[in-house]
Amino acid sequence: MNCQPEQIEAYQDGELSPREKLELEEHLAGCAACREELDRTRNLDLLLRKIPEGEISDRERYLKEVRSLVRRRRGLSWMGVAALFLLGLTVWNVYEAIKPDEDPPREPLSIRSELLRFSSLEEETSRKEILDRFQAEGEPGIRALIAALEDEDVRVQIAATQVLSKIRDERVRELLLKVADRPEETGGEDGEEWDLEDPAITACFYRAMEVAERDSDPGNLFSLLEEAGGEDPEIMDALSEWVENLLQSGRVSRQRLSIRILGHVGLELPWWNLLPLLASPELGGMVLDLLRSRTGKDFGSDPEPWRRHFQEL
Amino acid sequence: MGEVSEFDPVVDAELVLRFQEGSEGAFDDLVRRHMDAAYRFCLRLTGRGSEAEEISQEGFVRAYRMLGSFRGEAHFRSWLFRILINLHRDRVRSRRREERRKLEMVEKKPVQAAVGSELEARELGEIVQQRILKLPDRQREVMQLHTDRNLGYREIAQILGCSYEDVKMNLCLARKKLKQDLAGYL
Question: Which of A51, A100, A273, B19 is the most exposed place for a label (fewest CB within 10 A)?
Fold first, then answer.
């Protein structure tokens, strides 16, 4: 048995099987370095217990505060509905005040097809026409745009986000924040373009991940990353976590998806999850290609030399 | 594993059921049962009492909103801790820059070698806590769950939504870093 620090710690934590425990104890008997490492691990654990526990100074006040927050949030939900109503009313009134008398009757607006058209257009003038139509719809238009943030097609979600952001109305913004369930965040000043930290845009990425998982197709996600999210730390953190979960799912289609993503996006390799897949008849080849291209090394399909290589890093 | 035996998950499951049937008092009982653990856990994640209180209370508010659809596939406590972890991650993300400045300040604070009895245990504990706060997010979460709750790798994996191997690896990396940072005390 070789020296394995993680096994020494698992031993200290009582996580080894009886057989592993026996093997490690045999190794410890003959390895002074590992015995020293075990002592250091035990000393560290003793040190960690010295962290002050901390306690709630007034438990009843704490509970009252939780109750009060619950009540306030309930109130806010109703205020959200009221705000939506008021917003719609305002937009509608503005529209009524400025609309030309000779405005011809319009066809009913098909939200999804308009948003899909919006997403496929690059020309600003054409996009503005669509934007104007949504604004002219008043409350139903705004409601439909907010509902489209939950559409199953990520292109519709992105277009809805873009249209809503261009309206640049603070109340629309508040509603967007509410939709994204991130009330504590604030965005740019009025009149500024919203940046990637905008929770509604972040929500689109999360949705794109869900769609990729459902369809086993990361196409939309890749386009979205190329367009905007490749440098955003939150997006990259969420992607890393998600890819790891896919790898651990035990389902070949999800694992294949995660390997494709790792091949396309420069995330840190979760090698400890990848190496067991080298033995998979369906995925072994893909994993090997990925490891070769990301490391410039080739240790074949035996996971051990790969493991040693990553541990040395 | 201390908390597992201390808090019978069956009692939690009954309280959740009563809440889902309309009993507000059942929610209060859930808060009372878990407020200390939630607060302590958040304190170890954040290192600040006021923030720990805010996040843990926000966690209960979020739990209140989501409890109606809670199906009991995980223990209430694991589920609550997962909410707390997510809330903490949100804060870390949205205040990343501020956090970095604070960590830089911690780094500037000199750590002297151990001087045995001269060093008060409390001060030592605070130094250890500061070193833990410097760990990358996932390593810190794993370390805190392991140290504070004395949880096994599987339960930590369940709370964080990651694999057993992931927990083992992150705990190993965290310990490696702490052994380096706290070498003078080991």
Answer: A100
Residue of B nearest to A56 (CA): B36
Nearest to B60 among A44, A66, A237 (CB): A66
Return the amino acid letter for A162.
Q
pLDDT of residue A188: 33
Residue B165 CA to residue A220 CA, distance in Å, equals 30
Alpha-carbon gap, residue B168 to B156, rounded angstroms? 10
Contact A220, A211 (CB under 8 A): yes
Q: What is the pLDDT of residues B3-58, one digit of tens each?
A: 444 567 788 999 999 998 888 899 999 999 999 999 988 988 888 888 899 999 99
In SS3 terms, chain A reads as: CCCCHHHHHHHHCCCCCHHHHHHHHHHHHHCHHHHHHHHHHHHHHHHHCCCCCCCCCCHHHHHHHHHHHHHHHHHHHHHHHHHHHHHHHHHHHHHHHHCCCCCCCCCCCCHHHHHHHHHHCCCHHHHHHHHHHHHHCCHHHHHHHHHHCCCCCHHHHHHHHHHHHHHCCHHHHHHHHHHCCCCCCCCCCCCCCCCCCCHHHHHHHHHHHHHHHHHCCCHHHHHHHHHHHCCCHHHHHHHHHHHHHHHCCCCHHHHHHHHHHHHHCCCCCCHHHHHHHHHCCCCHHHHHHHHHHHHCCCCCCCHHHHHHHHHHC
CB B49 within 8 A of CB B77: no
Closest CA to A86 of A148, A140, A133, A139: A139
Portion 18-47 of A in contact with B at CB < 8 A: 40-41, 43-45, 47
Using the Cβ of B7 and the Cβ atoms of chain A, whether some distance falls under 8 Å is answered with: no
CB of B146 within 8 Å of a chain A CB? The answer is yes
pTM over 0.80: no
Q: What is the mean pLDDT of residues B157-166?
A: 84
**Blockwise average pLDDT, block size 10, chain A, 313 residues:** 82 91 91 91 87 82 90 60 57 56 47 80 72 74 74 72 67 57 35 41 69 80 67 74 84 90 87 89 92 90 89 76
DSSP notation for B71-90: --SS-HHHHHHHHHHHHHHH
Kindly tell me the number of DSSP H helices and DSSP E strands found in chain B. Answer: 10, 0
